[in-house]
TrEMBL record:
Pfam families in UniProt: Rhodanese (PF00581)
Ranges for domain Rhodanese: 15-102
PROSITE patterns reported for this sequence: RHODANESE_3
SMART domains: RHOD (SM00450)
CDD domains referenced in this protein's UniProt entry, alphabetically: RHOD
Annotated InterPro entries: GlpE_sulfurtransferase, Rhodanese-like_dom, Rhodanese-like_dom_sf
SUPFAM superfamilies noted in UniProt: Rhodanese/Cell cycle control phosphatase
Protein name per UniProt: Rhodanese-like domain-containing protein
Amino acid sequence: MEIAETTVTDLPDPLPADLVVLDVREQHEWDAGHIEGARHVPLGDVPARVDELDPTVRTLVVCHVGGRSARASAWLAQQGYDVVNLAGGMDAWQGAGRPVVT
């Protein structure tokens, strides 16, 4: 299965209100800074907490550099969720000068 992927430069600024951002990093990474309005579900918790997500709403999946979010995106897509992986993750987000909150 091919994973849908996007880059920070391809995302509108600000992000659309109907886009859910799912951050799958660990707690300490989240605490250091995340995208405003994002939902935090560490990668290992995604299967147990998948019912917290709406499969019909486009979800942007984010991690540190894109590996964990790619795994989460692949799994969620197999479950029928409308997901896209953020290539480069939070490194790319911050590198592009996009805002983070702590």
